[in-house]
Amino acid sequence: FSRPIRNLDGPSGRAPTIQQIRNKHGAREVIVDNGIISVSFSSPQGLITGIKYKGVNNVLHPHQRAREYFVPEPYKNTMNPLYLNHTDKFRQYGLWQRYTELYPNRDLIYTIGVSNYSKDWFYSQVTRKIGDSTYTPTTWQTVFHLPYVNMRGSYTLQLALASAAWANLQVRFNNEYTRPFFSTGYIGRDNAIARHGIHGLYRLYSINVPGRLLRTGTNTIYLRQAKASGPFEGVMYDYIRLEEPSRE
C-alpha cells in the first residue's frame, strides 16, 4: 500500500487515501478510498472484506434477507396496525399483489448507477396476475455498463437467494429469447411470500460466465422466474454481483 494505485484515481485524479482501523468486531482493516469507491482489506491477510461504491454500503455483504429492497404500502382493508411504521413492514398481508399493480404491462428494469435498490427493486420476484386465476412468469432486467470486456476470460455471477417458492429462475445475457445460460431448476418450498416473510432457505449460485457473452458498453442480465401457476411462486434476492477476471 506504499504506492498510489493509478487505476483507482478519483474524480479529481487524486491518489487513494489509505487508513488503518479496527472494525466493529475488533479486527484490523486497511481502507483504500478514492472518493468514488472505498475498498476494505483485512489486515494482515489482505482479503477484501467490503466495497462501498457511490454511497452504497458494502456491496459485498450478504444479508441473507430481502429487507433492504422496496416493500410497497399495504392494502387498507388488510392492514395490520402492529406493523405500521415498523421495520418489518413486509409482514403486511397481500403485498405480493402490488407487483401486478406497479408493473401491469412490463416487468422491472433496474439500471446500475441510476436505479435505487431501496425504491426500484421489488422485494420479491413474483408472478403477474393477468386474470381471475391466471398468472404469467416475470422477467427482470439488470442493465449495466462495461468499459472493457475480457473476451477470453471467465466472469463470475454471484447470485444469492434469500428465499424461493416453487420457482425456476433462469439467467440469460444480452438476449432475452435464447436458451437459458443458467437455470436453477425447480427449487424452494419456503412459503416466505405467502407467510409475509423475507427469508427462507438460503441459496448461493456461483455462475461462470464466458466473456464472449458480454459486450463493451451496455449489457443486460435477464432474470426470468419461469413458474407461474399461482401467486406465491417466486424468489427473493439477497444480492447479485458480477465479478470480472484478472487483467494480469
Helical proportion, percent range: under 10%
Q: Classify the secondary structure makeup into a structural class.
A: mainly beta
Low-confidence segments, given as residue ranges, are 1-11
Q: Radius of gyration, rounded?
A: 20 Å
Number of helical stretches of at least 4 residues: 2
Topology pattern, helix = H, strand = E: EEEEHEHEEEEEEEEEEE
Query: Which overall shape is indicated by the principal axes computed on the Cα atoms?
Result: globular
Spatial arrangement of strands, main beta sheet: 5-9-15-11-12
Major beta sheet, specifics? 5 strands, mixed
* Fraction of residues in β-strands: 35-45%
Distance between the termini: 18 Å
- Report the average pLDDT across residues: 83
Count every beta strand, where a strand is a DSSP E run of 2 or more residues. 16
Which helices and strands occur, and which strands form pairs?
Elements: E1 17-22, E2 28-33, E3 37-42, E4 48-53, H1 98-102, E5 109-111, H2 117-120, E6 125-126, E7 128-129, E8 135-136, E9 138-146, E10 154-167, E11 169-173, E12 182-183, E13 187-189, E14 203-210, E15 217-225, E16 234-243
Parallel strand pairs: 5-9
Antiparallel strand pairs: 1-2, 2-3, 3-4, 6-16, 7-8, 9-15, 10-13, 10-14, 10-16, 11-12, 11-15
